[in-house]
Amino acid sequence: MPTYITLMKLTDQGIREIKEAPQRIAEQIKKLESMGGKLVAFYAVMGDYDYVGIAETPSDEVAMSFLLGLGSAGNVRTTTLKAFSTEQAVEMIRSLT
Fold first, then answer.
1. Domains in the chain: how many in total?
2. Angstrom distance (rounded) from CA 67 to CA 72
């Protein structure tokens, strides 16, 4: 499955309602799983972002749908990177002509 790294920043609403964050995170994990995805890792971080999530989904379309739903709730803004494994990167590099 494709892998995505999502950088998240809390919005004003998200920080005001921070005490509900554990429940929201659990609900979003269930939502992702119901869409056929899998959360690989999730971190609260310090710096420019508040959370980093690494997930796998069956397709870009599933990832986009999940992220649109996540953003529309109004608690976080996301920046998402599609990631490639070492094996995938090596294969792409080897295919260069």
1. 1
2. 8
Residue with tokens 């999730």: 42
The pTM score is 0.91
We report the CATH number of the domain holding residue 58 as: 3.30.70.920
**Burial grade of 48 (CB within 10 A; 0-12, 13-18, 19 or more):** exposed
- pLDDT (tens digit, 0 to 9) for every residue of the chain, 97 residues total? 999 999 999 999 999 999 999 999 999 999 999 999 999 999 999 999 999 999 999 999 999 999 999 999 999 999 999 999 999 999 999 999 7
Find all residues with CB under 8 Å of 26, minimum gap 6, and list them: none
Question: Domain of 20?
Answer: 3-94
